[in-house]
Amino acid sequence: MSLPTSEPLPPENFKSLPAARRRRKSRVLLPKEKTERAAFLDELARRITPSFDFFLFSLLSGIVIGAALLLDSPALFVLGALLAPFMAPALGLSLASIVGSFNFFLMNLGSMATGSLLVFICGALAGWATRLWPTLVFHQAVFHTRFTWPDFIVLTLGAVLTIFLLVRSPQSKPLVASVALAYELYLPIGAAGFGLTSAVAGLWPDGLIVFIVSLAWAALAGTLVLAILGLRPVTFFGYTLGSSLVLISLAAVIAISGIGTALFARVAMPPPPPTKTATITPTRTPTLTPVPPTSTLTPTLTLVPSATQTASITPQPTPIWARISAGQFSGALVRADPNVNGKVIKSLLNGMLVQVLPEAAQNGGITWVHIRTSDGTVGWIVRSLLETATPSPGW
Q1: pTM here?
Q2: pLDDT of 47-63, one tens digit each?
Q3: Which domains does the chain have, with CATH numbers?
Q4: Taking a C-beta distance cutoff of 8 angstroms, is the pair 357, 322 a contact?
């Protein structure tokens, strides 16, 4: 018996459908009916909404990243990314541009800012701790505060795979793909906090800029994936947010490719050709001077000795060379002043040669030596970190 046309048809039972139709329906990522799509977006938003675990594991990840910055250990950087939580707020920014919810956008932006602030504080505490160990060197932190194409590719793949896998299976969290996002977001913000308190050049505010641009690009990549899958912005706010993300991402591409340096610093432009300038050369004007009459003398031939040049040799002190030997550490720091809190101007690896200058200073029971590096940098270094073939006078 057929139902009247005025009554709604009962929902289809998925198990009662033919096998071919079940396979075709299972391959569809997003439901086509409006009610089912709305329910799907609600479920997706609920899964993306961060919980207390997000902030707890952000703090744990920040502690490990701070230790990695202090010990200059690449392995600890990887461990910090593995301990990071599921980067749900970064995906929430993409979903907010689709559904057009300003409150949902602010909630995810605030959650992402809070989790990143915890990592930033841990990095700042690690940077403050460097004052207790002035002989430590830091090379790995700089790698995470620069725009590079490999990092850009890892960030893009992490954002694309995370949002795609989450849409395909909303009941599970793609934690493996989320590690790539945590690596590219939490490590720069941790290095920025480390540079703010440790006075290591090149970390602050470079790491903060890298974090902001990376977060904007991750949100844009997630928005593009959702648009390709069939979810497009439905409000003016969604389009405005998407446009803002595009502009920030274009700035990231310009910064990575070096186009901005060529445009603003004029590095790639040849120097202008020299122009000829007329120079006025004064000429002598003869002046007639009357000469009084003088008596004429009889000339006498006299032998005049010729001047002979004699080369004089000025003795130069023999330069003293030493090499860096920091023991269990990988190198030493060169500071602008003979003080453990002096500004770090260069870091040298073990085995590098430096010229020892005559000056030396005592500060807090530590003997500092004035040195010059191979590239001409002049600074102060702890004397116990140097080795010489023969002892220098006064050592």
Answers
A1: 0.57
A2: 778 889 999 999 999 99
A3: 30-264 (no CATH), 320-388 (2.30.30.40)
A4: no
Distances (CA, A) of 214 to 48, 228, 305, 368: 19, 21, 83, 42
Quote the CA–CA distance of 310 and 307 in Å, as a whole number: 10
- Chain-centroid distance, C-alpha 138: 14
Phi, then psi, of 387 in degrees rounded to 5: -125, 135
How far apart CA 158 and CA 152 sit, in angstroms, is 10
What Å distances lie between residue 166 and 46, 180, 330, 347, CA to CA? 12, 15, 43, 45
- Of the candidates 285, 301, 65, 322, the one whose C-alpha atom is nearest the C-alpha of residue 194 is 65
Half-sphere exposure of 103 (CA within 13 A, CB side): 1
Between strands 344-349 and 331-335, the pairing is antiparallel
**pLDDT tens, 223-250?**
888 888 877 665 545 445 555 555 555 5
Tokens of 192: 């920025």
DSSP string, 1-54: -PPPTTSPPPPPPGGGS-HHHHHHHHT-SS-SSHHHHHHHHHHHHHHHS--HHH
Helix (H, G, I), strand (E, B) or coil at 101: coil
- CA-CA distance, 51 to 40, in Å (whole number)? 20
Residue recorded with tokens 């910090």 = 80
Q: Which amino acid does the sequence have at 11?
A: P
CA distance 391 to 1: 109
